[in-house]
Amino acid sequence: MASLIDLRSINRVYEMGGESLYALKNLTLSIDTGSYVAIMGTSGSGKSTLMNIVGCLDRPTSGSYSLDGVDILRCSDDQLAEVRNAKIGFVFQQFNLLASMTAIDNVMLPMVYAGVPKVERYNRAVQVLEQVGLGSRLYHRPNQLSGGQQQRVSIARALANKPSILLADEPTGALDSHTAEDTMHLFNELVSHGITVIVVTHDQDTADHARRIVRMRDGEIVDDTVCS
Amino acid sequence: MGLAELFLIAWQGILSNRLRSSLTVLGIVIGIASVITLMGIGEGAKLEAEKQVQALGVNLIYIRPGSIGTSGVSMGQGTAPTLTYEDVLAIKENCPAAEDVAAQYTSSLQIQAGEKNTLTTVVGTDPSFPDIRNFHTAQGRFFTVQEANDSARVCVVGDGVVEDVFSGASAVGKKLLIRGELFTVVGVMEHKGANATGDQDDQVFIPIQTGYSTLFGLNLVSGRAVKSILVQAKAGEDLQAQFQITNLLRLRHNIQSPDGDDFTIRTQMDILQTAQSITGVFALLLGATASISLLVGGIGIMNIMLVSVTERTREIGIRKAIGAKYRDILMQFVFEAIVLSLTGGIFGILLGLGSAYWVGSLGQWTTVVTPSSVVLSFLVSLAIGLFFGIYPARKAALLDPIVALRSE
User: Most exposed among A163, A165, B43, B311, judged by the fewest C-beta atoms under 10 Å?
Assistant: First the structure.
């Protein structure tokens, strides 16, 4: 069976003042459906660039990337937007909720872009918000919620369109250790439901929850361990 | 995404910064309101001018003496007393297309009744004057053909004169001194208001023959000169009448080439066209002035949209990350600009209607707001939103999601 994510010989080169900087160097990585992967590395190791490429926010300079059988390098910007919308859920370090919208509006937004009918949108948003334990906070705005609650709204938003991949960038970076622990448990639960979770982090405790840890340095994978 | 959805997203964006949005809307409100008001004034002026020309009479032809020209230097119309009362009689006699003719000799003279005296315009004319000018007596009567032939010392006064020298009391039957000559008032004209030539109610009408023998004097060169001739053409025959009069006067004045005409002849249609072209320019100028404020309002929208795009770069990044396409972001910001400008347009139309009504009620101007100017304003405000919104919206839609997400 082909992997869900299949990156081959990926280079990501930035031209700066006539010099070529390799953010990713001949990187090959595949991730199967239902795995829980942590990508680790210091800042500048290329893990953010890798996340942007896996998340279809950026295109590699060369190489090939197939996501769920779709050749990402051949996609237009709008097609990439569609892939992000349908297959990938993002969880950002700063949560990135829209401040002017309530929790439920934030969660419904990806479904608005997917063209989901209104009633279905609402029902599904309520369902995912309950799933993350925020059933009683539907109409609160982000500034009326704690950091942990905002994180859970952003996870609910990521889950809204039933993605196959949840992509989390330093998900625990802005949380206290207790809330961070809760978030990791939530991820574990999602994995048990068949969602592929990829966490990008520099924090060992966060990475320890994953079943596979990929370590990066200078744009290359230096270690790839599957935990027991 | 449906229209309702886009509208909702745009509306949320607008509400997120109420003060700034309302100030931007205010720019459009003022622009549209001034377009509506000034176009209303222009349209009113046009209508007023047309009404005044209509009020001159029906099928009216107006003949004035020509200018004295010396080696190409014209001294201006009416500088030569080239039209005489004999011309008037000849037109009456020889132009079958002319229904009726009246001569006019005007002179500014002192009049007096009792203690009061004033300077007014004394008009020597024919008894046919009221019918031709569609300007009738309100009390008493106009002087008769008999009185005109007898050079009777009778006069008809305008209602302004009644105010001035008779203190508003009934003037019919009273005596009036015109430059020391004694006249009897036989009638008072109806109220007519002012037109381009002056206050029509501040006039005294006397038989022109009486005028020649008492007030105006005889010109030794030209005999009984007239200042203008009014002709009422038969219905539908104004062009024939104009043609006949022109030929007759050229024959009588020994004019060989049309360039040497010593008179000018204008039909009511000419006057109407002149009036329309003048008021047309007036309306255009007003409209152009108002459009400038509308343009400034539009630039205000563009400015605020650019600020908004910059401020909301992160929001755009988030929307793109979770699946918004180029078109989604473009439409969001275009719609925001359109909703801003249409809101301004609607309030501007209401304010414009109100202020046009207010200006009209002041009495100085007639204002007419045509439905087409309202529809036009609405469409223009829509177009402004589209035109000034598309550039900022494109800028937003083309943002790189990674760069946008990274921005603070």
Answer: B311
Of A77, A98, A112, the CB nearest to B318: A98
φ and ψ at residue B115, rounded to 5 degrees: -85, -20
- The pLDDT score that the predictor gives to residue B70 is 47
| Torsions phi, psi for A162 (to 5 deg) | 50, 60
Same domain as B397, residue B292: yes
Do B175 and B297 lie in one domain? The reply is no
Residue B72 placed within a domain: no
The whole-angstrom distance between residue A7's C-alpha and the CA centroid of its chain comes to 16
CB contact under 8 A, B12 and A101: yes
Nearest CA in chain B to A157: B322
User: In this structure, are B160 and B212 located in the same domain?
Assistant: yes
Contact A110 B322 (CB under 8 A): yes
Is A152:A132 a contact under the CB 8 Å cutoff? yes
Residues B248 and B377 in one domain: no
On whether the CB atoms of residues B153 and B183 are closer than 8 A, the answer is yes
Task: Establish if B287 belongs to a structural domain.
Answer: yes
**Nearest chain A Cα distance for residue B372, angstroms:** 39
* pLDDT (tens digit per residue) in A126-168: 999 998 888 898 999 999 999 889 999 999 999 999 999 999 9
CA distance B328 to B204: 76
Dihedral of CA atoms B355, B357, B359, B364 in degrees, nearest 10, equals: 170
Q: Does residue B7 share a domain with residue B120? A: no
pLDDT in tens, B240-266: 888 899 889 888 888 887 777 888 888
Task: Specify whether B236 is located in the same domain as B293.
Answer: no
**Which residues does chain A have within 8 Å of residue B12's beta carbon, measured at their own beta carbons?**
100-101
Chain B interface includes A55 (CB < 8 A): yes
- Domains in chain A (CATH in brackets) are 33-63+75-226 (3.40.50.300)
> Quick check: is B66 in a domain?
no
ipTM exceeding the 0.85 mark: yes
Cβ pairs bridging A and B (under 8 Å): 58
Cα atoms in the Cβ-side hemisphere of radius 13 Å centred on B298:
19
Chain-chain contact of B320 with A115 (C-beta, under 8 angstroms): no
| One domain, residues B237 and B348 | no
Residue span of the structural domain in which B224 resides: 81-261
Which residues in chain B have their CB less than 8 angstroms from residue A86's CB?
323
Burial class (CB in 10 A: 0-12, 13-18, 19+), B221: exposed
Separation of alpha carbons B145 and A193, rounded Å: 114
Q: What is the DSSP letter of A20?
A: E
Q: Among the three residues B228, B261, B294, which one is the final residue of a domain in this structure?
A: B261
**Residue A135, phi then psi, degrees to nearest 5:** -55, -20
B253 and B309 belong to one structural domain: no
Contacts of A112 in chain B (CB under 8 A): 1, 5
- All residues of chain B having their beta carbon less than 8 Å from the beta carbon of residue A114 are 323
Note the pLDDT tens digit of each residue in B327-350: 999 999 999 999 999 999 999 999
- Round to whole Å and give the CA distance between B109 and A115: 86
Return the residue of B nearest to A101 by Cα. Answer: B12
* Total number of domains constituting chain B: 2
